[in-house]
Specification:
The chain is built from nine helices and 19 strands. The chain is an alpha+beta fold. The chain folds into two domains: 26-56 and 64-174, no CATH class; 182-349, no CATH class. Helix 4 (119-126) packs parallel to helix 6 (149-159).
Length: 349
């Protein structure tokens, strides 16, 4: 049986799962292989529609059902695979039972790097119509996946015209550049602006290669955790290191930026969230080890529910706000004709 033949693909996958001891509707734990597996729905059902290229950028927090419904449609209402390094099947249950519109959902929870080379894991990922990366700690994704066969399959999935999405830590790794949180913490804006070349700013290059995100570093829980300063510091460091055209894209929690195949993006939010596009001009005025950042005339544009962003040229139609940000002595100053929203408090990393 040829697993590349679409009519045989799901029968082949089901056989693989049964041979691995993954019975229908059951939790299959594979502690020796370094992962756990969950599934819900009909793995052998035909995919009702066609898959389309798309990227779902979610900032964390609550998941907007409309964004998941959009993602399900881009997956051809077929078979979605959720990847994570903590938690269990809670997102799987919500996607299948509350949002609906998919034939099945499978979840792989990684506990080690070895699982990213496991043939059974790779078979599940290879057959996915849509892949979604859950939240948690992005350091685990970097350590477990970067440079593995799974990493290559994620790029291949996108190249085949299938949708990919992520929330919180899952969003943090979707850009060409990523904050890896590899020091075990979560750097604050004040810390990053005080020393953008410090060891705590653990940036990762070339993890994933998504079209139109080649020059982007993302950030999450953006407004609630006051992360504008740290994303500016990340951009300053990357530009200092030779990546002269890098820009930043932050997404608020409870919000999602839905990017179509042509690069056009629209925002879905449960409350008053935004996506934030950060575009500096040129190099920092000063960036040196152990020294606070100096950076001038950084354009910050808000993408709201009435806005549209074109990731081909980074233009924004009907922006929610425009800000000019300056960093002086490691302190962030904002100057705007259209005011940005006031920061909201938030707990957690």
């Amino acid at each position: 049986m040829n697993p590349r033949n679409p009519p045989c693909r799901w029968l082949w996958l089901v056989c693989c799962l049964l041979l691995a001891g993954f019975g229908p509707g059951a939790l299959a734990k594979a502690p020796d292989a370094g992962y756990a597996y969950y599934q819900i729905g009909k793995l052998d059902a035909a995919r009702p529609g066609i898959t389309e290229p798309a990227v779902l950028l979610m900032g964390g927090g609550e998941w907007p059902p409309a964004a998941f419904a959009w993602f399900a449609a881009k997956s051809g209402h077929g078979h979605v695979v959720i990847l994570r390094a903590s938690g269990a099947d809670e997102l799987q249950q919500e996607l299948y039972e509350e949002v609906g519109g998919v034939a099945s959902v499978q979840t792989l929870v990684f506990h080690s790097r070895g699982a990213a080379s496991d043939p059974r894991v790779l078979a599940i990922v290879r057959a996915a119509d849509g892949i979604f990366i859950a939240g948690g700690d992005q350091a685990n994704y970097v350590r477990f996946w970067k440079g593995t066969p799974l990493n290559a399959l994620l790029d291949r999935h996108v190249a085949q015209g299938k949708p990919l999405g992520g929330t919180s830590a899952g969003l943090a790794i979707l850009g060409r550049y990523a904050y890896g949180a590899l020091d075990g913490g979560s750097i604050t804006s004040d810390e990053a602006l005080a020393d953008p070349l410090g060891k705590a700013a653990t940036l990762v290059d070339g993890f994933l290669h998504l079209p139109r995100l080649e020059h982007v570093i993302t950030d999450t829980h953006f407004h609630a955790r006051k992360r504008l300063g740290r994303l500016i510091a990340f951009i300053a460091r990357l530009r200092h290191e030779g990546h002269a055209d890098v820009v930043g894209l932050g997404v608020d929690q409870d919000a999602a930026l839905c990017v179509e195949a042509d690069g056009q993006g629209h925002l879905v939010t449960l409350s008053d969230g935004f996506a934030w596009l950060i575009r500096p001009v040129g190099q920092p005025a000063r960036i040196a080890a152990g020294q606070p950042l100096e950076y001038r005339s950084i354009r910050v544009t808000g993408i709201g529910t009435r806005s549209r962003i074109d990731l081909n040229d980074l233009s924004v139609q009907h922006p929610a706000f425009d800000i000019t940000a300056d960093v002086r002595g490691g302190k962030l100053e904002l100057h705007s004709a259209t005011e940005a929203p006031a920061p909201r408090a938030a707990a957690g990393r």
